[in-house]
From TrEMBL:
It comes from Falsiruegeria mediterranea M17. InterPro entries: Alkaline_phosphatase_core_sf, Sulfatase, Sulfatase_CS, Sulfatase_N. Keywords: Calcium, Hydrolase, Metal-binding, Signal. PROSITE patterns: SULFATASE_1 (PS00523), SULFATASE_2 (PS00149). Its EC number is 3.1.6.1. Belongs to the sulfatase family. It comes from the Bacteria. Pfam families: Sulfatase. GO terms for molecular function: arylsulfatase activity; metal ion binding. This is Arylsulfatase. SUPFAM superfamilies: Alkaline phosphatase-like.
Length: 556
């Protein structure tokens, strides 16, 4: 029999502290498959598993029919993940007028496919990307937060990524752009399932902020030596230095740094060239992949719109340094989608575009992006941090111009793409997979999601739980669920006015959800983050990178 914890036991720091002692009931296998699931999914599957299993038969028939008319192959997948744009910013002509940022190509993509109106991500870059790649809440893989300089950590080789799953089903795989999964060899994309990858090992704090130009724009303070003289500095290693920039690598090979000579200073011009290079490379990859017999998975993760120096001439009415690059990126997306058409790939390619988290609100006011209907942004568990635009197109299969109000989490795309690729058998069965198969939602339309919940973490800490239209901000230890802040996000999208009328009944239900989640963690503990020596596997490390690594090693 299930042992009940006392009602006030569970407010929660999952991961760092194990909350629920006692061996509790084992989580029940889902009615639909043998993948290890979170307790909350199993709770839903116990109510709907039979219906889902029946529906899966017709979904399987549809997917088989598609493959038959496509020469026996599942579709190509082109997945575009852009950085730091809040829900409502793209895909919407009215908002284009309101904000002065024209996203006409994304708007067109939205019209040609399904708009996922309630896509949840993690609150920042690294965790969202881990969730997509592994189908798991990042904490389960030991991934907690964004890292800027050397850490000797990254996505562990033991994690099974989507490209690794798809490769087993015969896909060719390429990655272009931001990666941000660590600075150790095992975490690099060409060691995590991609046949070929071009990527910066770190992210935009280094690439677009640690420059003279960003200092002169007053957006990076105290970093560049030209900005200040101070004879009292003793530590010459306080400011990051010698960081590796853009790499390219092939599966099984070493990586090579591109476009930076020993002793050369990284500049805004390098950053712009890097972005232009990635755009050219994604077009080139698309062309190369289209010439092969097997289907492809092409991942394009641009660094834009993040940018911190004003251009010579703005192209948007808005003119903010993020807004302007968002509009530029929109034209690049238009160019990529035109290439899809030109190569005759439109009918056979699933195209998805979304953002990884809400805006970088820290630069709100000058970046040109602003908090829209939802409050908050990057790094926060508020809706503004974890709700993003998401559009998916698959002509003839996903209804053009459709929309879905159902809850989807970014980890669901791992499981869903695997299903679409006929690769579900290669999803690992020895660890928790949070990603829910949303193929029914895509093929049968809204109302067919298999989740109505999301656990929202900030780093290792569970900060809120979303269920249906309600959201509980996890209360301080000792505060009973019935007194916790619970919001109805349809009525209060900015999460400003918790209503006791919401909490008095739902507090107990949210507490049960927290327990179901915690019990799953107890049964399937988090796996460790990958550890290693930073910058291994790079064949042309500059002397300054070797030095920064030696200094790092000297005190670790
Ligand atoms: Ca981001």
């Amino acid at each position: 029999m299930k042992k009940r914890s006392k009602l006030d036991i569970g407010w929660l720091r999952i991961g760092a502290v194990v909350l629920f002692a006692s061996g509790l009931a084992s989580s029940k296998a889902s009615a639909t498959d043998d993948i290890v699931r979170d307790g909350e999914y199993n709770f839903l599957a116990a109510q709907h598993g039979d219906v889902w299993a029946e529906q899966d038969k017709s979904i399987d028939a549809k997917l088989a029919e598609y493959r038959e008319q496509n020469g026996g192959k599942p579709p190509n997948i082109l997945y575009i993940l852009i950085d730091d744009v809040s829900f409502g910013q793209m895909g919407n002509r009215a908002m284009n007028y309101v904000t002065g940022i024209d996203t006409q190509h994304v708007n067109k993509l939205a019209q040609e496919g399904m708009s996922l109106m309630r896509m949840y991500t993690e609150p920042s870059c690294t965790p969202t990307r881990t969730a997509f790649l592994t189908g798991r809440h990042p904490v389960r893989a030991g991934v907690e937060e964004v890292k800027v300089a050397l850490v000797g950590e990254g996505l562990a080789s033991e994690e099974v990524t989507l490209p690794e799953v798809l490769k087993q089903a015969g896909y060719n795989t390429s990655h272009v752009g931001k990666w941000h999964q660590g600075d150790i060899e095992q975490s690099y994309p060409h060691n995590q399932g991609f046949d070929w990858a071009a990527f910066p090992v770190h992210q935009q704090v280094q690439l677009s902020l640690m420059t003279r130009e960003a200092m002169q724009a007053n957006n990076m303070l105290g970093f560049h030596p030209s900005g200040q003289s101070n004879e009292f500095h003793i530590d010459q290693r306080f400011r990051p230095y010698g960081l590796v920039t853009g790499l390219e690598g092939e599966a099984g090979g070493t990586a090579k740094e591109i476009d930076l000579q020993p002793g050369e200073e990284w500049t805004q011009a390098h950053y712009e060239r890097m972005n232009e290079r990635y755009q050219a490379q994604v077009l080139e990859q698309l062309e190369n992949l289209s010439q092969k017999d097997d289907p492809f998975f092409l991942q394009y993760w641009p660094l834009y719109p993040l940018n911190f120096a004003y251009p010579e001439q703005a192209i948007s009415r808005n003119g903010g340094f993020h807004a302007d690059k968002l509009q530029l990126l929109d034209t690049w997306i238009g160019e990529l989608l035109a290439k899809v058409d030109e190569l005759g790939l439109r009918e056979d390619t699933v195209v998805m575009l979304m953002a990884d988290n809400g805006l970088m609100y820290h630069y709100e006011g000058t970046s040109g992006l602003s908090q829209l209907i939802y409050r908050g942004g990057k790094t926060q568990h508020l809706e503004g941090g974890v709700r993003t635009d998401a559009f998916i197109r698959w002509p003839g299969v996903i209804e053009a111009g459709s929309a879905a109000g159902d809850i989807v989490h970014v980890s669901d795309m791992f499981t869903t793409f695997a299903r679409i690729a006929n690769a579900t058998d290669y999803i690992p069965r020895d660890r928790v997979i949070d990603g829910v198969d949303q193929t029914a939602l895509l093929l049968e339309g809204e109302g067919n999601s298999r989740r109505d919940y999301v656990y929202v973490y900030e780093g290792p800490v569970l900060r809120s739980i979303v269920k249906q239209e309600f959201k509980m901000h996890m209360p301080a230890p000792g505060v009973p669920g019935a007194a916790a802040p619970v919001f109805n996000i349809l009525r209060d999208p900015r999460e400003e006015n918790p209503q006791i009328g919401n909490a008095l009944w739902s507090g107990a239900s949210f507490q049960d959800m927290a327990k179901r989640h915690a019990l799953t963690i107890e049964k399937h503990p988090h796996l460790p983050l990958g550890k290693g020596k930073p910058y291994e596997g790079i064949e042309n490390l500059r002397p300054e990178s070797i030095e920064t690594r030696e200094v790092f090693d000297s005190w670790h």
